[in-house]
Specification:
22 strands; 44% strand; alpha+beta; 9 helices; four-stranded antiparallel sheet
Length: 390
């Protein structure tokens, strides 16, 4: 077997020798130290195999024995390389790829996240990257247990994390923490007062005692729920008052109509970058802008995100420009501003009726609403010593 492997590596030639004297041919080859094997006698001569160097010297033995030599086939690596010598670059490239793959197998190239619902993949990957698990890192350059601990401490929404390595893929498995609803605790004393004028429709004191009745009209600052409660023995008990008071109120909204309005003109620029094996290569300089939007497109194979992608960052700047408009356009612009302002003013109110009109150079509206008008106001208490009887 070693003999055959040796000849395949260095190459050999199988030939046919015909006519003349076969025995003399073999003897002359032996005298010239030409190695022959697989010798087969034929009616008109013989067939055999020899080395490449041996075939170069075989013509002298053939002439001395009166035989004619003809090549049947060439076998071995030298002849294969010669046949494909025009494709040398292909073989070199293949060897380079195999070498690169061998080196890359010692690194992490794909990072995936499982088990998260409220915390995003990007946030988890960023925290683990800061802790040491990033694309391109060598497998023996990070401690999974330390990284898990650091990540759980950094992300309060996680209760547990684990890293599983499969080849060049790192799978991050997490479990999110269950948060109990926080209970508001207060050891202060306070009253509930009206934050605006209105006619009380509903009053529900949760803590403390009601200071008004349904149907009563109150002014801003009026006491609604008192934090001081009288008990049977005549003593006063102080508490942190709490309650729900709904009153019928009015909300007025006004926006002036301007002959000159401000228009924002956007100016947008996109900058692309390539993401290759943990490295981002930007095709232009990054810049600052009023609005920055970043988009990432990843390469996926069989549902697995690969370490290749095309990113682009969109930078948008706005330039203010004041322009004069006609009356109708000015009114439309004012109506738009009024819609935004009235939305915020009446966001926490239930509208009963509304009246909107354009007059005196403005868009004005009045809303009849139901609102919770409670506002907590703390007050301080101090203990007094009882009067001594003389």
């Amino acid at each position: 077997m070693i003999f055959n492997l040796f000849h395949i590596i260095f190459g050999y030639i199988c030939f046919t020798a015909s006519g003349g004297f076969a025995e003399r041919f073999i003897n002359l080859c032996t005298a010239e130290e030409i190695q022959l094997w697989r010798i087969r006698k034929k009616p008109d001569g013989l067939t055999a195999c020899t080395t490449v160097a041996g075939y170069r010297k075989i013509k002298k033995s053939a002439r001395g024995s009166g035989m004619r030599v003809r090549i049947n086939r060439k076998v071995g690596l030298p002849f294969i390389l010669k046949k494909y010598e025009s494709h040398t670059g292909l073989f070199v490239g293949l060897a380079a790829v195999l070498l690169i793959l061998s080196l890359m197998s010692n690194h992490i190239w794909v990072v995936s996240v499982q088990g998260n619902t409220t915390v995003s993949d990007e946030e988890i990957e960023e925290v683990f990257s800061d802790a040491g698990l990033r694309i391109g890192v060598r497998k023996n350059k990070f401690d999974a247990s330390d990284i898990n601990s650091d990540a759980v401490l950094s992300i309060g929404e996680l209760s547990w994390a684990s890293i599983n390595i499969d080849g060049s893929v790192a799978e991050i498995k997490v479990r999110e923490a269950l948060h109990r609803p926080s209970v508001e605790k207060s050891g202060n004393t306070s009253n509930i007062v009206a934050r605006k004028d209105g006619q009380v429709e509903i009053i529900e004191p949760y803590k403390g005692s009601a200071a008004i009745k349904s149907g009563q009209t109150v002014m801003q600052g009026s006491l609604l729920v008192s934090g001081v409660t009288q008990v049977r023995n005549g003593m006063s008990v102080f508490t942190d008052a709490d309650g729900y008071v709904v009153a019928r109120t009015k909300i007025n909204v006004s926006v002036p109509i301007k002959e000159e309005i401000t228009v924002l003109k956007p100016k947008t620029k996109k900058i692309y970058s390539l993401y290759i094996l943990g490295r981002e290569i930007s095709l232009a300089r990054r810049k600052k802008a009023d609005i920055v939007y970043r988009h990432k497109s990843w390469l996926y194979l069989h549902g697995i995100k690969m370490p290749f992608g095309i990113f682009y960052t969109q930078y948008t700047d706005f330039e203010e420009e004041k322009i004069k408009v006609d009356k109708k356009t000015a009114e439309l612009a004012a109506l738009g501003d009024y819609a935004v302002k009235s939305y915020h003013e009446t966001l926490h109110a239930q509208i009963i009726s509304q009246n909107i009109e354009i007059k005196n150079g403005s868009v004005a509206g009045e809303y009849d609403c139901y609102e919770n008008i409670c506002q907590r106001v703390e007050f301080e208490t101090e203990e007094t010593e009882p009067l001594s009887e003389e």
